[in-house]
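Q: A reviewer asked whether we had any structural model of the full assembly, not just the individual parts. We don't, so I'm hoping you can provide one. Inputs are below.
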Amino acid sequence: GFAQVDMHRALRKGFPEVIFGAGKTPEQVVGIATKILESEERVLVTRIQEEHARALRKKFKKAIHHSVARCVTLEKSPHTKRPGTIAVVCAGTSDLPVAEEAAVTAEIMGNTVDRIPDVGVAGLHRLFGRLELIQSANVIIVVAGMEGALPSVVAGMVSKPVIAVPTSVGYGASFGGLAALLGMLNSCGSGVTVVNIDNGFGAGYAASQINALVEQNMKSVV
Amino acid sequence: GFAQVDMHRALRKGFPEVIFGAGKTPEQVVGIATKILESEERVLVTRIQEEHARALRKKFKKAIHHSVARCVTLEKSPHTKRPGTIAVVCAGTSDLPVAEEAAVTAEIMGNTVDRIPDVGVAGLHRLFGRLELIQSANVIIVVAGMEGALPSVVAGMVSKPVIAVPTSVGYGASFGGLAALLGMLNSCGSGVTVVNIDNGFGAGYAASQINALVEQNMKSVV
Amino acid sequence: GFAQVDMHRALRKGFPEVIFGAGKTPEQVVGIATKILESEERVLVTRIQEEHARALRKKFKKAIHHSVARCVTLEKSPHTKRPGTIAVVCAGTSDLPVAEEAAVTAEIMGNTVDRIPDVGVAGLHRLFGRLELIQSANVIIVVAGMEGALPSVVAGMVSKPVIAVPTSVGYGASFGGLAALLGMLNSCGSGVTVVNIDNGFGAGYAASQINALVEQNMKSVV
Amino acid sequence: GFAQVDMHRALRKGFPEVIFGAGKTPEQVVGIATKILESEERVLVTRIQEEHARALRKKFKKAIHHSVARCVTLEKSPHTKRPGTIAVVCAGTSDLPVAEEAAVTAEIMGNTVDRIPDVGVAGLHRLFGRLELIQSANVIIVVAGMEGALPSVVAGMVSKPVIAVPTSVGYGASFGGLAALLGMLNSCGSGVTVVNIDNGFGAGYAASQINALVEQNMKSVV
Amino acid sequence: GFAQVDMHRALRKGFPEVIFGAGKTPEQVVGIATKILESEERVLVTRIQEEHARALRKKFKKAIHHSVARCVTLEKSPHTKRPGTIAVVCAGTSDLPVAEEAAVTAEIMGNTVDRIPDVGVAGLHRLFGRLELIQSANVIIVVAGMEGALPSVVAGMVSKPVIAVPTSVGYGASFGGLAALLGMLNSCGSGVTVVNIDNGFGAGYAASQINALVEQNMKSVV
Amino acid sequence: GFAQVDMHRALRKGFPEVIFGAGKTPEQVVGIATKILESEERVLVTRIQEEHARALRKKFKKAIHHSVARCVTLEKSPHTKRPGTIAVVCAGTSDLPVAEEAAVTAEIMGNTVDRIPDVGVAGLHRLFGRLELIQSANVIIVVAGMEGALPSVVAGMVSKPVIAVPTSVGYGASFGGLAALLGMLNSCGSGVTVVNIDNGFGAGYAASQINALVEQNMKSVV
Amino acid sequence: GFAQVDMHRALRKGFPEVIFGAGKTPEQVVGIATKILESEERVLVTRIQEEHARALRKKFKKAIHHSVARCVTLEKSPHTKRPGTIAVVCAGTSDLPVAEEAAVTAEIMGNTVDRIPDVGVAGLHRLFGRLELIQSANVIIVVAGMEGALPSVVAGMVSKPVIAVPTSVGYGASFGGLAALLGMLNSCGSGVTVVNIDNGFGAGYAASQINALVEQNMKSVV
Amino acid sequence: GFAQVDMHRALRKGFPEVIFGAGKTPEQVVGIATKILESEERVLVTRIQEEHARALRKKFKKAIHHSVARCVTLEKSPHTKRPGTIAVVCAGTSDLPVAEEAAVTAEIMGNTVDRIPDVGVAGLHRLFGRLELIQSANVIIVVAGMEGALPSVVAGMVSKPVIAVPTSVGYGASFGGLAALLGMLNSCGSGVTVVNIDNGFGAGYAASQINALVEQNMKSVV
Ligand SMILES: Nc1ncnc2c1ncn2[C@@H]1O[C@H](COP(=O)(O)O)[C@@H](O)[C@H]1O
Ligand SMILES: Nc1ncnc2c1ncn2[C@@H]1O[C@H](COP(=O)(O)O)[C@@H](O)[C@H]1O
Ligand SMILES: Nc1ncnc2c1ncn2[C@@H]1O[C@H](COP(=O)(O)O)[C@@H](O)[C@H]1O
Ligand SMILES: Nc1ncnc2c1ncn2[C@@H]1O[C@H](COP(=O)(O)O)[C@@H](O)[C@H]1O
Ligand SMILES: [Mg+2]
Ligand SMILES: [Mg+2]
Ligand SMILES: [Mg+2]
Ligand SMILES: [Mg+2]
Ligand SMILES: [Mg+2]
Ligand SMILES: [Mg+2]
Ligand SMILES: [Mg+2]
Ligand SMILES: [Mg+2]
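A: Here is a predicted structure for the entire assembly that you could use as a starting point for your response.
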């Protein structure tokens, strides 16, 4: 009664309904996951706590808990990865949970991910040292809190789509990530698009859709 | 003295510096355009008024004024369009200037654009009647003011990347587009990314980067 | 001393004063309920915690604890339901507590309620599958968090009054329900009215007033 | 090209698409009105200026300009009014344009309207003097700016649905109507629902839907 | 070292420095109180918790803990009360802690206080029943949360100074008392002045200054 | 029809309804003034423009236009001033219109006013030079824009009631007077009460009520 | 009467009172300037319009109008410049008026200024090309609108004090410079301090105080 | 993997990377400190809790825990202090943690610090009593919560650079320090620059950069 799982989603969107764990009990999460796995090959659960992970791993042997990312993934059989990479760049150590949520989402959706952590604008040489890896990706996710300046700098140096993720890292006038969010929306680096504060999931999902598009078009050619 | 045009931008980004006309005099705009055209094939000027358009057309015979979009474009010779289309969907008649800015930007950057205007959520059958055209695009730009609900609905029905553009259309508690912006950032339609309020230019630019990515990867295969 | 119960309210408003439990001790709540039941047939207590429910059920045998709704109701003898139904539509599983508060309020006030949960805009076919039930109601309450787009879509498809309830479900730029609230206030679906964030009680109360109006007018005719 | 009029709206909603004049040229407004009148009996245009009114009256002999309300209405033949009244109560002289927009909307939709102006809470005896008229209505629209306290007071004295309309009347910390809006959303007068700042149209529309509901149910009985 | 008590304050302001307990340890509070009592007859401590009260009562026999008001007062010998009363009116049961803080402050400063609780605008007859008592006061403090409408109504009925205190009582769009604060600042009831959200202390202090003024002028006459 | 003048106000409040000129036509203002003067000795019109002043002076010979204050006053015969003074202190030259509105309001209500302009906190010696005059007043109105620090400083040096008026003077992060308003609400100077941004009228009115209170109590003694 | 010029300011602060032209008439500005020049060697007028400049130049032969900076300066005899430079770096062409206000302020206060315009983060190579000049300054003022990322990048590369000036350049979610302001306040580049939006004057003043400090200390050594 | 310490920072900025403890585990903090101390003489850790301090002191004998400041410092050998002092002025006892963070930062960076606590504007004589000490400093840090008026007053009395630090001390309309922040940004005291709410670290860092500048210039002269 409490949920009406969208069982057509994989058809329309290419991936089954993702379970948003926040505010759900472990039982509800296990129930919805069971329902989805009746007809799907894989499932992703985000924003969970230890107890949800335990409940899921107790029920499903193959469930994997990504603890920094606060996610559980479950695949009946492994995906073959599509060509092309997604780079996940992050500004500081404290932004890692959000960056990992993006990376885990992109991986379960069939993509290869390169992680480039702790390269914030206070010491740009760290970013320049990783530039080649970044430029070789098909899509670049940039995660940053505080003033959120990193996406502008990255977008100025690449021709690939940049997805910016503001985080709630900071204090005072960061207002829970608002400063980073506004900064990214006003980026002078053309072509930057933005997702909600701390929304690593959304960035990983959008990046996967873009990378999948390349694959789809290539297939239709061959 | 007043400007230091970024003459490497086409190399790094695939398109020369775009001139932001707001707050510049017609003379400044013509000056910067002249500088860019010394080494580039095409130029885009956004957020201009009648007088800027006149000054540009007086100086450059080939300049085209897109009056609804408030843009001028100028190409020494026409681009060949890359494969794949970009759909520009908009919610109401009043959102047209922003939608046109997106469309003109995507076109000057070498893309074919399909326009689907006035299909807001108050009468969804209008959207359903255009669904095939929307689903056939590589990227979908969705422009909406007021509550900004259209991107969520579109994203629920397609597997392609959706770029949402909030507009300042509305009054009272729309707070200059804030309501639409927040709505789009909180979209429950997975994979929606967002640009600044009224930033048709940014959406067109990002969509073009995505579409170009398809082309690049296809070329590298062939 | 601490309270001056409004003992005329049922006369003026058709229903006795409702007890707002938040910030009151169990003793205060029991005290006010006792006072009201001296002269009234029924009482509704909202926003309570487990301990208030326990205290009320200890004192009053007929007290019913609606735990998802965080309410207690108590009727000396059952109401006869008035004709016509109120539909309570909700977008996601996490919106259920607010939707239930609306439903319980409407029921204790003498109305028949139809519940339509988890039909958010990310998968509209779920809504379309329940459309007939929704259209047959006299009033429709639509509960949604995040971007709050569902009331616009529902209002576009029915001719009945739609009462929208934004919830605080979401994170980041949802700003505690502000995004949903602004979205609903700016709805392009004509005839939508809005109550406070998470105010299921207010929506149920207003819906009951509307449904009662139908009954009153019908009586005056017959 | 610029608009895709929703020609099914009268079927779904009971009234044809209403034209929002703000940001449209007189030519666009006349064009859309002409299109609607091809198949509908009446049309309502809101938020217009003198020049739109002139253009409409030049084209349509029967067009009526409601100048305080900033609306034009046009009926091929007069509506028969449905039973029951809608009261439009307003706090101060400066709130009149919004109150009139509500009244004109309710009237063109087939309702009888009672106007009760300038009865704000600074001198409550003015309100008490009109109480009987207010209590005899089926629905009460209350329009107020500044602190927006009037709907709470009215709702405390009637059992009928109250629709509150905050206005942008005020200065300083009224923040363009925000103070009144927040006040109304937090009303302790149970059963108050709220529309956008200055949205007289929305209040009139919702009130008409409620009054029509009475009529529909009565018909189905008889 | 941690504090530099303002020992001249009673001279300049007529009352010694008041200790703001929030964020101070019980030891700090006792230390500052001891210092003040070296040269003063009385002391007021606000915003304390149980443990501060215990520490103060252990050290000072005459300390009185006003638990609803979250204050401690201490007088070496009782004040003679000045003529005239201060009325403390409050809208709902949940506003009591703030109302009591105002009352306790006014009393320790030498005033007689009349308390009129739970007379909010949802049932105005409760207010009318207490009107004579309110009108007989020299100053009226009105405490209200949610939409904060009560000060406007009171101010419309009296010729005495009204000090409005918004409280953080409410949820959702009350935004921690912002709705009530803005409402009171925009009051159409002339002569209303406002203090910070939940600042019962400030209201009591200002009311006492006004009442003292009467006394001072009367003395200078006699 | 457009206004329902509150003809009992002088009875309840001690002064007839004050006409808020903003958003009213000269004709409306003259009409309301005429109505009030049928039964009252004096009238105050605030927030007017040149044309309202002209219309009022044309109709009423005794009307006086206070142009800096943007007010018109009209007295059939002069008031005798009550004892005690009201000090109107202001921070900078740009705050003068608001300070004058306060002064004119207090004067027409029968008070003697001392003006102390341009003594902001950037050069405190200017304030100290006027301290005796300030301390001799019964009530002190302090008007300041930008950071609004002056009321805190004044309140620290006097024992009389201080009414703070934030102004919209400033730019950028002053956000139309919000910075000054918040500063004054958070004043560490005990006993400061606050009115709306730019609300000189409200401050003058409240100050007059306080000064009148002194007079009333003195009379009742004598 | 309207102003009380702070004639001691040069003694206390090292520079005479600066005239803020906004909201003053040309006559008032000329009057205050005349008063200051009675005892001072130089004067600075900011935020003026053409007509103020004309009035000042008519009265004072030596007045210089800095039109981009919207300032007038006047020196009876030229200052000798103190050692050390102040760098004024700006992100885009549209930020020039604010950057010039900072530069003109620093110059009239006796400093040598280096201007480095249009080196925003979208093309960082432009900044790197000017790095030596920037690093040789004693203080660096960085002016930027939109997302305001430039100060973070500059602060990461220098050991000198960086003063960040957010500008109101941008649209939509820049909210009049709020995005840039919040970005700069949250800068991860240690040692960045911030002034108000568009406050070039304040930045120039603070930079001069720092540079003067060097000079003072050096003098005291020699 | 989790961090990429910026090992060049001391070269570029004159001080090694400072560790921001908030949101890091004790292990992460010890790990980064160890890495930095491989090549640096000293390290500063800010925003830590008891357990981080314990872990650091267990690993490093010379670690010092500044508990009020919530910092740990560690120096292999003591710094020689540079000439000149930095004054840290604070308004109230509750602002001490932020003031101490500023003082500890300035000290570990090689500066002599004078502390002047609890001299807020409610009793200005306390400030005047310490004026000489304040005026003798090279840089003045002013820390204040609530309305944040102290920096304006201090800046009016000194010719040295003033760095203002707003704190989150306060309640209600202080909105977590926003009131103090806005007050300081709008300061009429020329030359005030501002850092983030509660950012004692940033103020200490900036003050040290300014004081170091004096030293550098003096050295280059000698
Ligand atoms: N208390 C503080 N407030 C603001 N920034 C800080 C603070 N302490 C350290 N930092 C900065 O935070 C950066 C480290 O961020 P992270 O990579 O997350 O460890 C350093 O470069 C410091 O400059
Ligand atoms: N309509 C637009 N909205 C946002 N950014 C734009 C727009 N048009 C151009 N730009 C960007 O503005 C930058 C130029 O800024 P400026 O130096 O002030 O001319 C270019 O790098 C563009 O990427
Ligand atoms: N969940 C709720 N949300 C908003 N208002 C409520 C709620 N429950 C009860 N109320 C109202 O709160 C008022 C009681 O307030 P109080 O005097 O504080 O108990 C009643 O008049 C109800 O109309
Ligand atoms: N300058 C002012 N600021 C705020 N309220 C005012 C002002 N002038 C008059 N008023 C109030 O506005 C009310 C009249 O409102 P209205 O009915 O719109 O004319 C009167 O009751 C006055 O108390
Ligand atoms: Mg780091
Ligand atoms: Mg349309
Ligand atoms: Mg669901
Ligand atoms: Mg009126
Ligand atoms: Mg109550
Ligand atoms: Mg001045
Ligand atoms: Mg540029
Ligand atoms: Mg203190």
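A: Points you may want to mention in the reply: Residues A 92-93, 118; H 3 surround magnesium ion (ligand 5) (CB under 6 Å). The longest strand of chain E covers residues 85-90.
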